[in-house]
Design brief:
This is Germin-like protein. This protein is an alpha+beta fold. Helix 3 packs across helix 4. It is globular. The protein binds 2-acetamido-2-deoxy-beta-D-glucopyranose.
């Protein structure tokens, strides 16, 4: 009886652990990504700790404005494990996002991370949509100093609705959050998703699908 209870607790704890940890917890102080190794162990292999320097935990340049001269009027500057090797296995990273007036960071999702964002400058409308079947749209206008969280996996966006430029810093709960931009994934897939699939999914004619696919 007692053994069974212990076993059940262990099973429960294991599942609890699996449910809580999006990335495995580190088994050493750090595991600086070894960019010279092609071996991947669900992340990068560790550099010899004796050769690790302060520079491995360091990134410079987040004070620099991203170039927003593009179709969307926004620019993401990432600080992931690729840019900051010391992040490897730590389950965290950050970005700077710049927005020109009316600039948009279009609807996208991070398959591996929750995102918490703070506005440094400007005014942004942000939002996300809950999963099926509700697809509830949750949105808010943010000012300087405001913080908003986008739960892991949900489709979200930010748009500059102020008069000037806007800039945010966001933290993500993965060293490599990934990003799936909805429009690009659906209409810009390579090779293309067959038009009849998209026409049926979006309940539109082939001409509309052609038009959208041509843009991506
Ligand atoms: C910003 O990007 C645009 C388009 O790619 C380019 O023409 C322009 O030179 C860039 N500006 C700066 C300051 O790098």
């Amino acid at each position: 009886m007692w053994n069974k209870l212990v076993l059940l607790s262990v099973v429960a704890l294991t599942f609890n652990y699996l449910a809580l940890a999006y990335e495995p917890s580190p088994l050493q102080d750090f595991c600086v990504a070894d960019s010279s190794s092609s071996v991947k162990v669900n992340g990068a292999t560790c550099k010899n700790p004796m050769q690790v320097q302060a520079a491995d935990f360091f990134f410079s340049g987040l004070h620099l404005r991203g170039n927003t001269s593009n179709q969307l009027g926004s620019k993401v500057t990432p600080v992931f494990a690729t840019q900051l090797p010391g992040l490897n296995t730590l389950g965290i990273s950050m970005v700077r996002i710049d927005y020109a007036p009316w600039g948009l960071n279009p609807p996208h999702t991070h398959p591996r991370a929750t995102e918490i964002l703070t506005v440094l400058e400007g005014t942004l409308q942000v939002g996300f949509v809950t999963s099926n079947p509700d697809n509830r749209f949750i949105t808010k206008v943010l000012q300087k100093g405001d913080v908003f969280v986008f739960p892991v996996g949900l489709v979200h966006f930010q748009q500059n609705v102020g008069n000037g430029n806007a800039v945010v810093i966001a933290a993500l709960s993965s060293q490599n959050p990934g990003a799936i931009t909805i429009a690009n994934a659906v209409f810009g897939a390579n090779p293309s998703i067959p038009w009849d699939i998209l026409a049926r999914a979006f309940q539109v004619d082939k001409s509309v699908v052609d038009q959208l696919q041509a843009k991506f």
